[in-house]
Amino acid sequence: MAPSNSKFYAYLELLRLPNVFTAIADVMMGYWFVTWSPIRKDQPPAEVGILLLLALASSCLYLAGMVLNDYFDRNKDLRERPTRPIPSRRVPESAALWMGSELVIIGVAVSWLVSFFAATPLTGLVAFALAFAVIFYDGFLKKTWLGPIGMGACRMLNILMGMTAAGAGLSLADSTVHYVVAGGIGIYVVGITWFARTEANESHRGQLLASLLVMLLGMTILAAFPNLLTPNETFVATRMNVWYAFWSLIALQIIWRCSRAIFQPSPERVQFAVKTCLLSLIVLDATITFAVQGQDKAFILLALLIPTLFLGRFIYST
How far apart are CA 250 and CA 313, in angstroms? Predict the structure, then answer.
């Protein structure tokens, strides 16, 4: 691993590289959720190439959001987090803006390649909407009370990008369960973002508690999605009591980590709780994938925890 004072390491910090695997898990879960569902009208081939391109597009747009976030926050970070790459001058402002812009362009361009191979324009259109949402969030929305909702919308669009590549439409009538799953993840991320809103300073206990409740609401929606399935749709986790028990265990782990930060809302505890909740996104995606695709594809998503945890030892992720 590069030394902490190297230029290369500074750019890895700017990118928040460990977190990118949560975005990859989201888009892959979205794709696999639809390839299982008979709701879709088309049957594009479930090719590895499409998944790799989706992962690349999702990664570029996510990393662009991380870079542009620090670019637009550079003056605030100069006061609150002067050791960050831009305020510490380890990464020039112009270089950060160029990198963020290029990542947006590459992400959207790759999504249109996916659209071409999947024979649907919807993936490219959703990616364009995601790119706009990322820039709008970083440049304006983050500073308002709507910021967490904007971040949740970005995650939801990322999942929809995977779903459309698998043949899903965007009509609510035809894709209710798709929107429930994507929306559940989105609401969960709203809670994380709200929880992390003042992580650099002393957080307010009431805000942290309310944020935790929003996360639990998102998880409840995800756990309840099987109730929307039709008799023609196969649900791998047929024993609903076991299904709900597993979601309860995940919820208890998140409650435990977050409650420690609520009782002692220091920046260190809040940031650790946020990191735990972000990592749990991969587990949530793997759980949903297991329910509709079985264990093999679920384990592929869980394997994304390996690079996430390894890189997280060297590069901060909040």
Answer: 23
